[in-house]
Protein: Glucokinase
Amino acid sequence: MDELFSIGVDLGGTNLRIASYADGTDFLDTILVPTRLAEGRERVVRDMCEAINALAIKDYGNRRLAGIGIGTPGPLELPEGILRNPPNLPGWDGFDLRQAVESTLGRSVEIESDANIAALAEFKFGAGRAHKVKSLCMLTLGTGVGNGLILSKHIWHGSTGMGGEGGHIVVQDVGGAPCGCGGYGCLEQYASAPAIVRMAGELMGPAAPSTSQEIAHLAMAGNQQCLQVFERVGHALAIALTGLINTLNLPLYLIGGGVCEAWDLFAPVMFRELPVRSYVYRLTAPEVLQPAHLERHKTYILGAQLGPSAGLLGACLLPLHQKSGSSQIAEDTLVHQ
Structure:
């Protein structure tokens, strides 16, 4: 019997990452090309499809192509695959990504929000698998703030595909920073990498570093203004997590993305404020915040395990996940809801 492989695409605002993958292996091949947003969305689709075709014709022995998965910044209307005012893809509002890709490739594709597929990857091969949960919520702190939901082993889309937009929970309702979504005071404006740079600029003026990594390094060295920036990150996350925890009551909430590397800078404030803000967290807070094994009926907030490869891996998993109709993890190993 032939084995299967899939092709996944991680559509980012800076780079397009494309990979071929066989379940249970590392990536078979990867391609990295710049996302040429300035040349128009059709140029981006052509670049994407050329890379997909290059991987599709490669010789992988007896493996045959199971399908193609694409992760894209949202909001994303599903099942149509139409982008709706994506804050980090200006000019793509109303773009029918599914139709554009399928008409170019001549075959169907699976499309999903980038945060949901990162959550899928963490569920199958990261923290979700390590801690044997059926459900989790994931926040990805990067260029924006994505939010993926896995409920009872399946991606939660909501009624139109726009479920899981926790990055646009309002965390500052008075004088909040304007957001690309059209609102004000969203989590994305206080916990993403560009938000960290903006907040540092507000405190430090022209002397502020130009990257969130530099700001984190200064904070670790004791710079008080940079420490204050990450306190604001922790404060904003506590507010957003309060809403998510009180609403969902899941066993596991993950924080991933590049900003997560500054965990030790923002997590103390986050954990200090959560019991005060969330009565559900207060009633279910674990004694050990980062245990080897999760206790039942407790609420855990942990760093994601898969790092920057989660989105691309999730895109590769998407067509395999859809074909199987499940997560491929045995029922008897999943102990939490």
